[in-house]
Amino acid sequence: MSTIAFRPRSRSYQGWPGYRLLVRDPLRLDCGIDFGPFTIAFQTYGALNAEHSNAILICHALTGDQYAADPHPITGKPGWWQTLIGPGGVLDTERYFLICANVLGGCMGTTGPQDLNPATGEPWALSFPVITVRDMVRAQKRLIEHLGIDSLFCVIGGSMGGMQVLQWAASYPECVFSAVPIAAAARHSAQNIAFHEVGRQAIMADPDWCGGRYLTLGRKPARGLSVARMAAHITYLSEAALHRKFGRNLQDRHAVTYGFDADFQVESYLRHQGSTFVDRFDANSYLYITRAMDYFDLAAEHEGSLHQALSGTRSRFCVISFTSDWLFPTAESRQLVHALNAVAANVSFVEIATENGHDAFLLHEPELFETLRGFLAGCGEHRGLGR
Amino acid sequence: MSTIAFRPRSRSYQGWPGYRLLVRDPLRLDCGIDFGPFTIAFQTYGALNAEHSNAILICHALTGDQYAADPHPITGKPGWWQTLIGPGGVLDTERYFLICANVLGGCMGTTGPQDLNPATGEPWALSFPVITVRDMVRAQKRLIEHLGIDSLFCVIGGSMGGMQVLQWAASYPECVFSAVPIAAAARHSAQNIAFHEVGRQAIMADPDWCGGRYLTLGRKPARGLSVARMAAHITYLSEAALHRKFGRNLQDRHAVTYGFDADFQVESYLRHQGSTFVDRFDANSYLYITRAMDYFDLAAEHEGSLHQALSGTRSRFCVISFTSDWLFPTAESRQLVHALNAVAANVSFVEIATENGHDAFLLHEPELFETLRGFLAGCGEHRGLGR
Fold it and tell me: Which residue, B9, B143, B147, B214, has most beta carbons within 10 Å?
């Protein structure tokens, strides 16, 4: 593994923990462009066994990154799957070799629109090619090859991470021993595209976005990105969770103020979500990654047939949804399961009862943990990893 | 009825059809301010009978106005309840005298933040007092008194209009013979407050908002208001309706463009909703009216007891909800019905099966029409209006 010195103008990755792989051979993207060289930033946990048979690829969601089980280098917060990962954990670092890479188009070290276009010496901004979930997975494939892994024991992820899991199973069926798409779908719905479009319009409406050239101009569309995050954040929670957490409780006051301050706790919470997000995320990356999700439609690559897309699969699937997830509702997972059944795939399907909405995949959900633990143990036995 | 010449700096109401009532006696608002004189802009349809017993007050929603059955003076589109109103219609102009007034804080002729503050000669902007749904209803009460109506045959409205209906029943029980709250709730939920806050932040993030002083400065926060409208509009539809209408259909193209144009029809539709809205609506009005909805909590006025709030009611209620409305779900209407039952009110409750989401109250919904027709006929008999 090679660590590459890479100095973008705007975001200093210097001092951030983790590996950088410079991929020299260009990648043929869905848009037709041959892209590269490019960098993949990734983390690993645990050790690869002698047979190279215990590797699990963890795929992150829209605003996630490779720091699944490390403190985030900007916020200092624990890794987003810290609760799952560790010695003896559900993703047991004493048994498995875990890999988590920042997606192509991301902003945590893997090449994205905030990085310098070598042809111009300026940040790519909107000249960065529009990438797809399949492109993200193509880049990950290069990483896996570099690490000497022919077949992943498991590919796992929630939300956009789950889309990548499905894409892996469809694109590289021989490389995926087991697959766990959580709170995901085989295609992005009209409502989800609509919410993404609101977020993009909020960013683009910010005069500090400057047609995407804000880095070159020393500006930052913080207000637009914050509004985008606020709108999206509502969709990650359930109505019931919002009601339970906040209801109509007031924020540090006994009565409404008859003004536009954050009278209600839920307003204060949302504003906080918006304002902290802009410290760690790049606005153009947000545009590119939401677009990749919108474009995701696994069946479309196979003339509209989802079971055709999955016909070559040999993976063992564990499809997981959450009752209160209205962004990727259970019905979407069920469609996926139907398609997997139609190709006689090995699939189990668990709908977990929770009030935590879409974000449940990031939270302490005992039933999720038990489901994953059991599924991985069973697959491990078949893989010769023991229980 | 007096028509008042009133010339705000920014929005010309000249030539707009309808009545203007100048209310000279100030109104004591919930925030404690005595507000006035102020203007109420309203429309009427049909004729008041000799007994003054056939008046129906129609209450409009957040972005509605008094033009319930006239072409909109800005957009030229038919009135928002045109399908219900007319000779022989559900709201039969041959039987009833219909009144629809623009709410206090609105932007279609009733005094709102875009009008001139007589004390300064400048538009009120954020010096306009924060108003509540109860304040809107207080203003309407003045109008009803002016029209010589002691008791309304019916108060009817959807969404925020339904909130006004409930406030009427609670504040002036002796004046409301029957009440029809549609797709409404006795209080605004945390999720709904959250969506409103996103809209307000989008407006306030627009540099052209200028701390609310955009009219004085000759500017307009069109981009922020457009984003607010886009986000809100998604909540008015159901996921099923979005899927049926748009799915993942592309807009005038055969393949995705790998860019940020509106590739999908749903994006194009949303952008259109946003951009046309800014032509007809004032951004500060949007802030004030969303705030009024957020503050709405009928029980809070009565120490948290909803049935206490409604204990004085003598009205016949018809509570209506829609199965696919996730903004004001049926559970909210059910809570209201429980409270009405607890005070032995005369209440019928209809949940209408539709895919049209919250916006169903504005659409051609045969079951809604039949329900209203039957309810009004029954009430009319009790009121001595005949069937």
Answer: B214
